[in-house]
Amino acid sequence: MTGLDDLVVVPQVGTTLPTLEIELTRTLIVATAIASRDYQDVHHDPALALQRGSRDIFMNILTSNALVERFVRRGLGGDVRIRRVKVRLGAPNHPGDTMTITGTVTAVDEGTVTVEVRGDNSLGTHVSGLVVVEPTRRDEGSAA
């Protein structure tokens, strides 16, 4: 048994995961940068971000990765092990915008599911790529 049957969404190629909209608040951008120990000033200091050519602070890649992971876990509706995340960043996520993440299952092979993801904001595509997960069985990791 691969665990695929234990997912709320039984994935098939072409399955579209439910859209996830994320408000990009200044607090979200700063707090997640600090939580991931990314102290680069462009993630928390608007004046320095402006000096470096950005219109405002912007989200770091670790937060983008985490939000993509959250989207896939939520979308499949079950416990999954993340096996690979391969994403590319594009337009920055600035405070006051919204990022909408969408995704489609592109492969289901021998116990793994591949989801193509895309996160868009008002400037364009912020993040795009592939996430490969392995569903876990319901009894794995359960307290006895």
From TrEMBL:
Signal peptide: none annotated. It comes from Nocardioides piscis. Residues 14-122 form the MaoC-like domain. This is Acyl dehydratase. Belongs to the enoyl-CoA hydratase/isomerase family. It holds the Pfam family MaoC_dehydratas.
